[in-house]
Here is the input.
Amino acid sequence: MNTTFDYIIIGAGTAGCLLANRLSRDPSKRVLLIEAGGPDNYPWIHIPVGYLHCIGNPRTDWLFQTEAEAGLNGRALRYPRGKTLGGCSSINGMIYMRGQAHNYDEWARLTGDDAWSWQNSLSDFMAHESHYKLDSYASPMDGGQRPGLGVLPGLGVLPKRLEDFKNFHGIGGEWRVEKQRLRWDILDAFAKAAQQAGIAPTDDFNAGSNEGVGYFEVNQKKGWRWSTARAFLRPTCMDRPNFTLWTSAQVVKLELQRQPDGSQRCSGVRVCVKGEMVNIEATGEVILSAGSIGSPQILQLSGIGPAALLQQHGVAVQVDAPGVGANLQDHLQIRTVFKVKGVKTLNTQANSTWGKAMIALEYALKRSGPMSMAPSQLGAFTRSDASQPYPNIEYHVQPLSLDAFGEPLHRFNAFTASVCNLQPSSRGTVQIQSQRFDAAPAIAPHYLSTEADRQVAADSLRLTRAIVAQPALANYQPEEFKPGVQFQTDEELARLAGDIATTIFHPVGTTKMGAADDPLAVVDARLRVRGAHGGLIAGLRVVDAGVMPVITSGNTNSPTLMIAEKAARWIVEDATRQVGG
Here is the structure.
C-alpha cells in the first residue's frame, strides 16, 4: 500500500471530487482521495427520485440529528449528509443555483480579497459548467467537451436571446445543467399567481440576481442524476495512474508537526481503512473537504478548535481556534400545504399500483415524468417585506404533499409551497462529543433564535397566503391544510414555524474564511488554515461549504463547486511557486 502522496484530499463529496480531478491533471503529482462512505453503486443514487431511498438510509446518509432546538419548540431534526462518492451531490435536490451577486461581494469585503467578488467568481462557475441552452453552439472542433468560459473557438454568432446568456454560463464543462423533464398544471398556476402577486417571471436564476419565479434547472444528464462523482471522477480520474481512491476510509486525525522556526505543518493524516489504522504522508498539501459537519469535527479531533471544548474531551490543544465549529448557518424551510380540486397532483397519481406502474414505465421509456423529478420543481425568490434590499426568501414548490419527509403522500390532491429565509441571522455550532473519530458531533443550528428570523418566518407565511389567494389559482379552490388559517398573529406564526419547519440541508460556515483580524476566521482568503500567533499551518487547507463566511442566497451545492475550482487553481499556483523559487 502506497502511503506517500503529494496531495491528500479528505472527502469525495462536492468539493473533493472536483479537486481530485483538477489536481491529478498533472501526472507528476500523486493524489489520494479519501472517502469515509462507500462507492456509489447503489442504483437509487442515480435515479433522480431516488433521494427518497438515500436520505435516511445508512448506506448513503450519515444519519445525523440536531440537538433539541429551542427555536423549534424543543424538536430535533434529521440532518442528512451524503455518505458515498459524490457526497451530498449524490443525495441532494439537484438544483443548480449560484445565489446572488451581493453574496460574493460580501465575501470579498469580509476577507479583504476581491478574488471572491461576483465578477471574479463568475469564471470559476463557468469553468466546469455545461449548460443545455448552449449545446447547439459548442464548437465542432471541440466536440463540446472542453471546459470553457462560454466562448469556444468556432462558436460563431449566437442568437440574440443567448448573447447575454453566454456571458454567464459555460459550455463543455463537466457539471451538466439541464431543463427538467416534466411540467405540472398546478405549478404553472402557482407561477402565474406569483406573478399576479408581484414576482416577475425569470428564465435564469443564475445571472447575479435570482429574483423571480420559474422552473429550477437541475444537475441531471438525460434524466439521470449527475453527481460530482460521475462528473469529475469517472472516467477521467479513474483512468489516471497518479490517482488513488480509498472508500470506507475514515480520517482519525490530522498529523501536525512543529517546524524549526516554531510554525506548524500538516504532514499527513491517520486513517482507519476497514478497521486498520494507516498513517499517510503528504509531501504537498492536505485538503480537508469533509463538509460543514465533517471538517470542523476532524479539525477538533486533531487539536484545532476551541480550547475549552478540546480540553473537555481530552484532546491536546494544538491551536486554540474558537471559530472551528462556530458560525453554523442553514436554510430552514416552512412547509405550507394547500388542498386543491380539479387538477392532478402526484398525491393521486401515485396512490395506486396502476399509477405507480405508469410512472415507472414513463421513466423507463423516456427518462421523464415523476421519477425524473427533483424534490422541488418550481422556484421563486422575492422579498418578505418591501424594506428588504435583496430577495431574502426562496420558495420550493411541489405538486405533492405529505406529513413529513419519508412519510406517505396524502390521499387528496394538494401542493406544497415551502419557503425559507435566505439570509438567517441565527448562528449555530458543530462540536465533538468525545475523542472517538466515529462518533457523531453535536449539531446545534439554533434556528429561529433571533427576533429578525422569527419576523421573516411570520412575514413569509403571510406572503405565501397572498400568492395562493391570487386569481390564477382560484379555479382549483385552494384550501390551507397546513399550517391552518387559525394562525394569524406574528407570535402565532413564528411559533408555528418552530413547530413545522425543517432543514433544507444547506449547512455552511463552520470553518469560515476571513481577514486576519477576525477572531472566528478559521482559514484565510486562500483557504489556508490559521495556526497559532497569527500564522498559518503549512500544507493544510479547508475547501468545502464550511468556508463560506455568510450563506449564499440559494441552494449551496454549486457555490461549493465554485469554491473548489478557485482553490484548485491556487493550490497548483502555490506548488509551482515553491518549485520555482
Notes: Residues 97 and 555 are 6 Å apart (CA to CA). DSSP finds 14 helices and 25 strands in the chain.
